[in-house]
Each structure stands twice: as structure tokens, then as C-alpha cells.
Design a protein that fits this description.
single chain, alpha+beta, CPE0013-like fold, 2 domains, five-stranded mixed β-sheet, three-stranded antiparallel β-sheet, 2 helices, elongated, binds iron/sulfur cluster
Length: about 120
């Protein structure tokens, strides 16, 4: 089986072809122009992950929401569940840049952190 993917590890966007056995074992990776592409392709075929950037609701702040991101890559299959957790949270102002808003989201070991500040009213 052959899987064609676009590497998103840098803006070059190389097209990568991964050959897989019937059992899903990676037989070869071609088309990447650097080692990062090889690693990206192998991860994408075995355990795809994504970084998450969004906003979280704030109470008592000068803004109603504050931007946030995952401190590391999350399993792709858990992104929607993570968004449900984030959407259900209401953070009390003030929020400082880098504050951990949701520690260890869904037991992934990854924190959701603020990427801006939100002073109290
Ligand atoms: S293979 Fe290397 S050069 Fe190509 S997109 Fe991926 S990281 Fe960039």
C-alpha cells in the first residue's frame, strides 16, 4: 500500500510517499529532502499528532476570551475531544502569558497554555 502525504514540518511542503506493508509496517519513505521529513512521514503513518491553537473563555477580564495553544503535539484522534474540554472551561481573569489553563488535557501529558495575557477589568 502506498500513502502520499505533504510534509508540513517546514514551508517547503515536500510531497512524500510512504510504502506500507499489508500489516501497516513502513517499508520505505521517499520524496523528503531532509531527515525531519522522514520523521514527520513515519509519525504521520503510525501516530499522527497535531498542535492545537484556539481560544478559551475568560470571566472578569477586559476580553471575553484569551488565545491558547497546546504546549506540545496532541494525538490527532483526540483533537475534537480536547476542543470540547477547552470549550467547556471558563478561566477567571487575570490571565498571564504562559499560564497553564488546563494541565494534562485528557491525560495526554500536554498542557493548554495561554499565548497572551488578559488583565482583570
Ligand atoms: S521534507 Fe524537509 S524540506 Fe521538505 S517539507 Fe519536510 S521538513 Fe521541509
Amino acid at each position: 500500500m502506498q500513502k502520499n502525504i505533504i510534509c508540513v514540518a517546514c514551508p517547503m511542503g515536500c510531497g512524500i510517499t510512504v510504502e506500507l506493508s499489508d500489516s501497516g509496517e513502513i517499508l520505505s519513505v521517499t520524496g523528503n529532502t531532509c531527515k525531519r521529513g522522514d520523521a514527520y512521514a513515519r509519525t504521520e503513518c503510525t501516530n499522527p499528532v497535531r498542535s492545537l491553537a484556539t481560544t478559551v473563555r475568560v470571566t472578569g477580564g477586559v476580553h471575553n476570551v484569551v488565545p491558547c495553544k497546546s504546549a506540545g503535539a496532541l494525538p490527532k484522534g483526540k483533537i475534537m475531544d480536547c476542543m470540547a474540554v477547552i470549550n467547556a472551561v471558563d478561566i477567571q481573569a487575570p490571565v498571564a502569558l504562559g499560564d497553564v489553563l488546563i494541565p494534562d488535557i485528557l491525560g495526554t501529558g500536554i498542557d493548554i497554555v495561554a499565548t497572551n495575557h488578559c488583565p482583570a477589568k
